[in-house]
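Sync notes, pocket subgroup
Present: LS, DG
LS reminded everyone that the earlier model was apo-only. Rerun requested with zinc ion included. Inputs:
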Amino acid sequence: MTLATAHGVVLDGVRGVVVRVEVAVSDGLPSVGVVGLPDASVTEARWRARCAVEASGRSWPNRRVTVSLSPAEVRKHGAGLDLPIAVGILVAASALPAGSLESTIFVGELGLDGRLRPSRGLLAAILAARRAGFTRVVVPDEGACEADVVPGITVVRAVDLSQVCRILEGVDPGCGAVRSEVRTDGRGSGERDGGEGGHAHAVSEIGDLSDVRGHALPRWALEVAAAGGHHLAMVGPPGIGKTLLASRLPGLLPDLSDDSALDVAAIHSVAGRRRPPDAFTEPPLSAPHHSASAPAILGSVSGGRAVPGAVTLAHRGVLFLDEAPEFCRPALEGLRQPLESGLLTLHRTGWNGTLPARFQLVIAANPCPCGQRTGSGTGCSCAPAAVRRYASRLSGPLLDRVDIRLAVDRPHPAELESTDLPESSAVVQDRVRSARARMAHRYEGLPWQLTSEVPTGDLRRRWPPGPDGAEVLRDFERRSPNLRGVDRVLRMAWTLADLRAAPAPGRDDVAGALALRGAHLGWS
Ligand SMILES: [Zn+2]
């Protein structure tokens, strides 16, 4: 009996899990058996592997072949293990050099003609390989460009099994050249470096704040939201720029760290999307339409695989729900768990597990079903009961987590005529970064980085406002004995203090926080 071991990757949710593929070729009637919790598509790999091996001009062992996949408890699905199974069999049959599979992960589906096809989640597979200490990964040439962003592992591309064999024999370097050791992050043009502003975001996808004229209060609210990580709600009539404003928030957030950026890109790769290389470290914006189903928002399971929903695609970025009361109730209710824990649990036939979903929520809503209930309210034809019903669709537990609630109205004509160029995202992003640095310093050694993450009890006890700030807060508490409301004001006041580099919230910070809490919207 001869043995060989190859390694591949299967997806578990949005993470890759390295699978050990052991192959034994022994005497006996010619047969191929696969053991170790394979699903039908993995079991079929033996037929695809056989055709591909023969198409590559290599000989198939006419003996008993046993393929064992481990860890045994991980469910193996999809055709992504075709390639490691095929090369494992070739080595076990002594058709390829022993030892050629070491430190290498193989990813890819095989066509009957031996051609390699990309499988979904390539980036997640490469990250799993790197985490597990592998130094080389062989991937299908087709669709391999997304692999170029991972440092610390050599990615070798091949078009078919025949080329993989030549690579393992050391006679072919692989196509597309062996990758560089440093990440190519598309900053070569220098476009993203905003001079003194440091790393400005690429403006292509998300748009710049300098495109937004007027709207002084909402612009400021976006800055506060970005600095403190506060969730934000905007209420106003249709067509006045709520979407434009919300789409600017990711551009005000600090760039993702390299590791976070790779995690985010891996999630998008599992969902079959590729993040634009020039905006690779930009926090993502996920903006589903209000007609989207609950599975589209929260995620689903199809064919034994988790399909990330909008909340997971917003991981480490922004989830924007325009016309939020129009979303179906199960989708809105389902947001509570990720808002609380940053995770989304799916229990479905075929797959159980959690997906990452730590996002900043921005919701926009019309003031009433017809949208015209602003200012004096003339022009609104809605019955009071209909207005109440509309507002109540954003349930208390959901709105409870939204610190900033803002009425957005048409900009004043004078604001629109002004020739001053509004501040750019890069300038605001700089202030956000400084404020976040102050928070990180204050919470050093504690499990929080942003004020929005600090439990309110701790905030009240350990970080009270300054004396004159406390006075304004006490006055507010007397008039509005809702403790949760008071806590929200204190949270925002700290962010305002951090934005102006003050040691503790003063009178103006508390007053500013009161202005952002949206009491007049009647949402509490
Ligand atoms: Zn109305």
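DG: Residues 177-204 have pLDDT under 50 and may be disordered.
LS: The radius of gyration is 28 Å.
Action: DG to write up.
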